[in-house]
Design goal:
With 96 residues, the protein is mostly helical. The protein has one domain: DNA polymerase, domain 1 (Orthogonal Bundle). It has seven helices and no strands. It is globular. 25% of the residues are buried.
Amino acid sequence: MSALTPSSYLMTQILNTDQETQSTNMDKIKTLTMNEIGDILRLLKLDEYVETFKDNQVDGAILTSLERDDLVNELGMKKLQATRIFMYMSEGHIPK
């Protein structure tokens, strides 16, 4: 079990889980750096994609502009893994 970095701890706290605030969550994610996106990937147990996202310079603004198919076809994720990211962005869901 990996320890949460200060940045990834903040990512667990930053998003609202109320569905009415989905656009607010996306606005917050848009401001995240590539390193913070890496922290989120680690938090979501998607460590194997941290370097891929960095190599492709995916920051929060880029991530929020992508579709699930982009994550699958361009970044090599499985559909379920892409869904995990989208659930985090829209609902703040973190797998337990």
